[in-house]
Recover the amino acids of this structure.
C-alpha cells in the first residue's frame, strides 16, 4: 500500500470513527450517572432522520444538527420518564427505545428516501491544509470531526475536575450517598440521559449529513451497538473511548482497503466481529479482578427510589 | 388450480369449508408479496412493489394485492407466511433468496396455496421459481466501463459472495476485459445488503486505489452518491439512481418484474397456473437499462445498444468460454457456454478481479 493510499485510508477512518465517538461519549456520561440506555441505536436513527429532514426542508445543516439533538432527546426523554420517574427496568426499556426509534425513523423518513443533501463542508486553511500527509489528516476534515475530539477533551476534563462531573460520578457510584448529601439523583440522571440522547443524535446526524448525505431505513446499520460496546471497551473514560472509536473505525476501513487491494487473508466477517470480541476481552479482564479503576459505575442499571 | 376449482374443492370438503377461514375470501383472489427490505428503498424492493402495483392496476377488482415489508429471513418469514394464509391469501410472491426454505416448508402444508419464489432454486407442485438475468445488464455496464475508464480499473462494492452477486461481478469483468484485456475490477464485499456508511467508505477506498468507475450490488445508493461527490462515473443497479447521481450515472440496471407478475396472476385467475422455473431477461423486457446519463459518448451509446441487441437475439453470450478464474485456471473451455444451472451455482470470480 503506497503512502498516498495509507493517508487516504486514515482520512476515511476518521469519518468511520466520528459517529461512533459521538454516540459512545453520550452513553459514557449516561452510564457514569448509573443509567444503562440500550436505546443508542434507536436514538441515532431518529437523530439521523431528523437531521436529514430538517436539512432537506430548510437547507441549513446547522438547523439539521439541532433537530437531530432534539429528536434523539425526545426518545431519551421517554426512556428517562420510564426508567427514572417510573423506575422501569433499564435493559428492557432501552431495547424498546431502540425498536421504537427504528420504527419511528422509518416512518418519518419514508418520504425522504432517494433525496440527497449537500454534505457538511470541510475545513480548508490555505497553505496549511495542503501540507502533504498532515494536511489531509488533520486540517481538511469536516467540523464534526473536530467537534467530537473537542467534546472528548471537554468531557474528560469536566468529569474529573469539575464539581458537576464529581456529582455525576457520585450519583453513578452511590446514589444513596449522593442523595443523602442533598444532590438530586433523579435530576442528574435526567440530565445525563438527555445529554446521551443529544450526542447519539449528533452521531446519527453525522451519518445522514456528512458520511453519506442521504436517508434510508436502518442507516446506522448497528453502529449504536458498537458505540455501547465501546463504552465498556473504553472503561467509561472519554479518551479511551476515543481511542476505541478510532481503533474500531480504523480496522473497519482498513479491511475495506485490504479487500480492494486483493488481500483477503482474514475473512471480512472476522474483522466485523472485532469490536465485540475486544469488548468481551475487556469485560473478562475487569471481572478477573483487574484494576479497580476499570470497573463499571457501581449503580449502573439500578433504579433509584428516594427513601423519604 | 384456479379460483373456481378451488372454490369447488372447498365446498366439496363439506364441514371443512365452515372451519376454513379462507372460504369467505374466495370471491376475490388475494395476492400477497413479502419483501426483505422497505418498499421505499428505491432499489430492489421498490421495483418488486412497482410490479405489484401494476398487477393491482391491471386486474382492478378481480384481485386484492397487499404486501409485508421488512420481513426477516428465517423463522420470522414462516410466521408471516402462515399469517398471510390465515388471512385468506391464495397466492404469495416471496421476493428474497433467504425466504426460499421457509416457503418450501410452509407450501408443503398448504398445497392449495400458490407460491412464487424469486431468486431461489427449489420448486414444488405449488412453488414456482422465477428470476431475472440481472447479469445481462452487468454485461452492458462492463462494455461501457471498458471503453470509458482511463485507469483501466473499476471499483465494485458488493453485498455477499453468493452466486447472484458473483455472476454479476463476473459478467461485468468479462465484458470490460473484452474491450480492454488489461482491465481490472477491484471488489469489496460488505457482508450486508444495506450499510450506507460502509458502502461509502468502501467506494472511497476503491477510488483511492485507482478506480475511476464505480458500480455496486447493494440496496442503497451510497456508492453512486460517492461517485457523484468524487466527480467520477458509475452505474446504478436495481433502479434508476439518476436523481442521486445526475452526472455520475452512465446508466443503471432496472428490474422490471411487472410482465411476469401480470402473467402469473392471470394464470391463477384463469385456473391455468402451474409450477415452473423461469429465468427471464432483456428478451422478455424484464431487465432494462435506464436512460443514458451525460457521461455517455456516442461511441459508448452505440456499443451499449449493440450489446443489448446482442443479448436479446442471443448472439452475445456473457458466459461463453474461454473463461479463467482468479488463479488463471480455465474454468470454461473455449467453444462451450456455461449452462444456466452452472451460472446459478457460480462461486468463483473470473480473472481480472
Amino acid at each position: 500500500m503506497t503512502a498516498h493510499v495509507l493517508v487516504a485510508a486514515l482520512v476515511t477512518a476518521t469519518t468511520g470513527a466520528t459517529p461512533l465517538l459521538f454516540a459512545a461519549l453520550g452513553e459514557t456520561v449516561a452510564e457514569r450517572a448509573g443509567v444503562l440506555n440500550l436505546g443508542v441505536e434507536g436514538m441515532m436513527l431518529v437523530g439521523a432522520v431528523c437531521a436529514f429532514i430538517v436539512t432537506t426542508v430548510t437547507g441549513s445543516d446547522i438547523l439539521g444538527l439541532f433537530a437531530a439533538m432534539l429528536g434523539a432527546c425526545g426518545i431519551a426523554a421517554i426512556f428517562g420518564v420510564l426508567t427514572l420517574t417510573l423506575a422501569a427496568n433499564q435493559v428492557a426499556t432501552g431495547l424498546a427505545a431502540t425498536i421504537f426509534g427504528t420504527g419511528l425513523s422509518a416512518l418519518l423518513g419514508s418520504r425522504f428516501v432517494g433525496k440527497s443533501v449537500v454534505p457538511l463542508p470541510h475545513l480548508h486553511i490555505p497553505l496549511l491544509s495542503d501540507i502533504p500527509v498532515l494536511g489531509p489528516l488533520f486540517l481538511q476534515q469536516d467540523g464534526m470531526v473536530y467537534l467530537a475530539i473537542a467534546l472528548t477533551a471537554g468531557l474528560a476534563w469536566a468529569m474529573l475536575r469539575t464539581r458537576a462531573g464529581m456529582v455525576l460520578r457520585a450519583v453513578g457510584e452511590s446514589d444513596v450517598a449522593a442523595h443523602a448529601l442533598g444532590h438530586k439523583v433523579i435530576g442528574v440522571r435526567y440530565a445525563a440521559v438527555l445529554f446521551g440522547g443529544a450526542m447519539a443524535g449528533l452521531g446519527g446526524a453525522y451519518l445522514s449529513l456528512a458520511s453519506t448525505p442521504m436517508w434510508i431505513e436502518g442507516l446506522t446499520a448497528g453502529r449504536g451497538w458498537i458505540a455501547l460496546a465501546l463504552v465498556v471497551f473504553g472503561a467509561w473514560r472519554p479518551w479511551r473511548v476515543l481511542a476505541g472509536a478510532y481503533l474500531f473505525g480504523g480496522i473497519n476501513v482498513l479491511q475495506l482497503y485490504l479487500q480492494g487491494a486483493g488481500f483477503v487473508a482474514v475473512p471480512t466477517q472476522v474483522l466485523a466481529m472485532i469490536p465485540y470480541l475486544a469488548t468481551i476481552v475487556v469485560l473478562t479482564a475487569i471481572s478477573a479482578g483487574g484494576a479497580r479503576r476499570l470497573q463499571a459505575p457501581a449503580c449502573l442499571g439500578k433504579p433509584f427510589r428516594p427513601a423519604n | 388450480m384456479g379460483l373456481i376449482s378451488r372454490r369447488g374443492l372447498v365446498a366439496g370438503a363439506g364441514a371443512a369449508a365452515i372451519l376454513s377461514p379462507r372460504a369467505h375470501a374466495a370471491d376475490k383472489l388475494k395476492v400477497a408479496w413479502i419483501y426483505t427490505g422497505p418498499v421505499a428503498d428505491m432499489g430492489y424492493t421498490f421495483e418488486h412493489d412497482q410490479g405489484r402495483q401494476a398487477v393491482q392496476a391491471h386486474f382492478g377488482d378481480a384481485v386484492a394485492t397487499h404486501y409485508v415489508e421488512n420481513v426477516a429471513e428465517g423463522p420470522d418469514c414462516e410466521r408471516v407466511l402462515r399469517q398471510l394464509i390465515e388471512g385468506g391469501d391464495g397466492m404469495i410472491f416471496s421476493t428474497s433468496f433467504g425466504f426460499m426454505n421457509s416457503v418450501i416448508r410452509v407450501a408443503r402444508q398448504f398445497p392449495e396455496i400458490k407460491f412464487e419464489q424469486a431468486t431461489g432454486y427449489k420448486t414444488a407442485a405449488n412453488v414456482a421459481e422465477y428470476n431475472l438475468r440481472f447479469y445481462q445488464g452487468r454485461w452492458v455496464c462492463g462494455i461501457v466501463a471498458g471503453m470509458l475508464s482511463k485507469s483501466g480499473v473499476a471499483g465494485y462494492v458488493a453485498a455477499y459472495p453468493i452466486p447472484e452477486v458473483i455472476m454479476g461481478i463476473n459478467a461485468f469483468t468479462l465484458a470490460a476485459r473484452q474491450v480492454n484485456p488489461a482491465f481490472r475490477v477491484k471488489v469489496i464485499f460488505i457482508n450486508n445488503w444495506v450499510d450506507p456508511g460502509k458502502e461509502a467508505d468502501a467506494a472511497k477506498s476503491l477510488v483511492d486505489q485507482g478506480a475511476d468507475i464505480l458500480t455496486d450490488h447493494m440496496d442503497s445508493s451510497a456508492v453512486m452518491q460517492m461517485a457523484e461527490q468524487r466527480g467520477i462515473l458509475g452505474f446504478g443497479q436495481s433502479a434508476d439512481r439518476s436523481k442521486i447521481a445526475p452526472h455520475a450515472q452512465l446508466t443503471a440496471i432496472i428490474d422490471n418484474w411487472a410482465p411476469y407478475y401480470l402473467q402469473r396472476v392471470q394464470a391463477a385467475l384463469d385456473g391455468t397456473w402451474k409450477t415452473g422455473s423461469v429465468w427471464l431477461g432483456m428478451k422478455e423486457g424484464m431487465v432494462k437499462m435506464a436512460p443514458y446519463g451525460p457521461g455517455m459518448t456516442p461511441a459508448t451509446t452505440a456499443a451499449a445498444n449493440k450489446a443489448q441487441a446482442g443479448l436479446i437475439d442471443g448472439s452475445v453470450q456473457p458466459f461463453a468460454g474461454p473463461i479463467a478464474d482468479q488463479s488463471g485456471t480455465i474454468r470454461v473451455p473455449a467453444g462451450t457456454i456455461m449452462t444456466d444451472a452452472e451460472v446459478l451455482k457460480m462461486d468463483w470470480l473470473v480473472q481480472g478481479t
Q: What stands out?
A: The mean pLDDT of chain B is 87. Residues 177 and 183 of chain B are 5 Å apart (CA to CA). Chain B touches chain A through 37 residues (CB under 8 Å).
